[in-house]
Structure formats: structure tokens, C-alpha cells
User: Fold XRE family transcriptional regulator from Actinomadura fulvescens.
Amino acid sequence: MTGTAKGASQMTTADKQAIGARLRAEREAPPRRSREKWAILLRHAAGPDAARLPSVESLADMIKQWERGTHVPGPIYRPLYVRVTGKSEAELFGPGEASPLVGNVTSTALANASADAGDEALTGSLEGSGPTKRRDALKLGVAAIAPEVVRRVLPEAAAEAMEFTRRAGVTALGPGVFSHLEAVVTELDGLYSRDAPTDLFSMARTYRHRVAELIDGPHTLKQGRDLYVYAAWLSEALAWLAHDLGDPLAAEAWAIDAFEHADQAGHDELCAWATDAMASIAIYADRPAVALHAAQRGILKAPQRHPLAIRLRAQAARAHARLRQREGCEAMLGDAEDLYDRLPARAPLRFTVDTGGLASLAMTSYPASAYIWLGDADRGDFAKAKKHAQAALDAQRALPEAQRSPSREAIARVDLALAAVELGEPDTAAGLGMEALATPRLVDSVRSRAGDLYQVLGVRHAKLPAVRDFQETYRHAVQAR
Assistant:
């Protein structure tokens, strides 16, 4: 072979076997790699064009044929061998062998073809303002590919097209996978407020790993989007559960993961749910500026006539209160109230949970905490906090037993207790604190708020018997964590 490369049809059996032997020697050179590993290396060498190549399994079978000398790699694959081995095409495929096509007939091929036709001509065409000029530029690029190259590509093109079509429908997902995931996520959401977070965390984490495996496996484009949505729901659940278990770093990481997967799937409402978790996690980690940013980010994603839009504004109000920004706090509470008054009569469900209840909680419990953190008795902050905390407690008591949230009730009692201290009722406050710590779901947020009550009562009323009882109970609760 001299001068230009021989096409596959021009090669003798001996030529093909010689090339196959070279390719096998490259693969088996230390560190020896399997054909599957070699296929992965070739796909990696393709960069962005890897998505257009056959699957690892199919490519490994092609490598087997090439190494046997049954076929030889075409101009699509030769440059990949060059990149993986570091050798020239001449060394791998014969003396003077150098394919003028550096990639597939894709953007990479056109870019190299433009070099043959003249970079300036193609660049000038692409700089035109209309689609006609762009089409002409692409035609120029294709025309610049040597006819013999096109003839070499064509025998493989039909097989490649068939492989790409097959891959578009290849999936490892059985017909019941999504129904099962829907049932799992629904169960997690329904059990969240009542069951122990340790048990639910293990369940959610197991399924999250399984969804990650399904994402990495073969699936259709539509199935991929749906898997990203379920990944986001599971990560959102893991964020809340890690928060309940007292690990803010893990909680924030899961919330970020939920947002990113939801955003990739184009699911704005789910993005907003993720930011709601981020805001609460940051509030309890004493990072109010981070909480405010998360709430503001979610406000841009949440549907305006959805209870989540109200909840996020109330989250922002809490963050402003922690920052001692009264004006921002009360503005956000006002916006939340306006939206609450305009909610549709029938609130949407979050799986099986009525989101209207979440809006009611946001309009009672969150303002109670906010006014305690603002903490100006002359402005009536503690009286407002007491009113809102009592409303939050009453709302929880009014729910059917299966829908009540023990941890939310406990936090409402702590807010009511903190207001009572400031209003001159320390014995009442200690009693409410005891009730809060008796909750069957003593999560980290309850302990955190109870810790605030412990500090206030200890500074002002440490000698009262009721206060001493509460403080002893609190210390046991912290030790048992």
C-alpha cells in the first residue's frame, strides 16, 4: 500500500489480518484490557461524538471482528485508535495510511472537511445572518470530503443507522419499573411525618441508588427524563430525612442533588420543593442568608397559584427574621398572605398529601418563629408569635390522626412556649416544652428549637421547679440522640 489508503474492498485477506493482529497487540499490551474496556476507551476518545457510537457491547463485538481480520475499522474509528494508542494511522493501518476524515460525518467531520476546502470560506459563510448561508456553508463542507472517503463510509453507514435506531429503543426497564417507583415515592411521602427517619432514610437511599443504576443503564430518552424525576423526589426525601437526623451537610447535599436532577428534567415544581428543603436546612444550621437565597430561587420556580409559592415566601420571611430584617420579613409575609387568599378552592396533591395543609402551616407556624426571632416586645412580636403558634397547633389537632405531624405539633408548642416566656408565663412555657419533648417523632429540628427554650428559661427562671424538670428532660433527650 502506497500513497493513499486502500479502501476495505481493495484490501486482501492478508492485509486485513495484518491490521487485525496489530490492533490486538495494542489492546493486549500491558496493561492488558478486555474488548469491553477497549470499547470504553474508544468511546471516551470520541468525546462529544461518543453518543453517536454503538453501545459498549456492540462496539466490543466490532473490535472482535476487526482483530480477527474479518473487517477493518473504517474512517470513523481509525482516529479513535490513534488517540487511544498514541500511534499514527500509518503505523496501525499501513504505510502512508492517514484518513482525511478525523471523525464521523458529524460536526467533527465537517470541521476537518472545512480545512480541506479553506477555513476562511466556511467561516465567512457561517458568519452570514441567514439560514441560507449556513446551509451553503454545510454543503461546502460535505462537498469537500473526497469521493473515495464517502465510498468507504457508505458500506458502514446503513449498519450504523440500524444500530443507532436499535439503541434509541433499547432499555433495561421492565414495564412495571415506573409503577413501582411511583408507589415507593408515594409511600415515603405519606409516611414521612409519622415514621422514624432512620428507617425511611435507609429505604429511600436504597431506592435512590437503584435509580442511579437505571440511569446509567440502557433506556430511552423519555425514560431517562422520568428516572431523573424519581431521582429528584428520592433525593428530596433524603434531604429532609438527613435534616431530621441532624446532619445538615448531608441534608444540603441531597437537596442540591434533588434540584439538579429536577432541573435537568425540566420539572420546575420539583426544583421549588428542593429549594424549600434547602431553606429549612439552612435556617436550622444558622445560615439565614443561604436560606433566603434558596427561598428566592424557589420562588422563581414555583407555580404562582400553588401552595408551595406561599410556603417559599414564608421561608424567606423566616430567613429575613433571623437576619433581623423586619421590613423584608413582613413584606414576604404580606406577599404570602395575598397569595393564600387567592388560592384555588381545591389545592393540588403532592402524591396523596393535600398541599393546602402545607400552605396553612406556612401561614401559622412560620410567622410564629419569625416574630420570635424578630423579638421586639414593644412592637407586639411575642403576642403575634403566640397567636400564630396557637393557630398552628389548633390546625394540627383538627386534622385526622393519620394526617397529623407530631414534629410540627412539637415545634408549634416550642414557639408557643418561647412566646409565653416573654409574656411572663415561665411555668406555662416549661410545661409546653415538656409536651414538645414527649413527641413520638423527636427529630433534630424539635431538639434545636427546644434548645432555644432551654437557654431562655435557664437564664431567667432556672430556680423554678417546672423549669428544672424541663431542663433535665431536655438533657436526656440530647444524650439519647
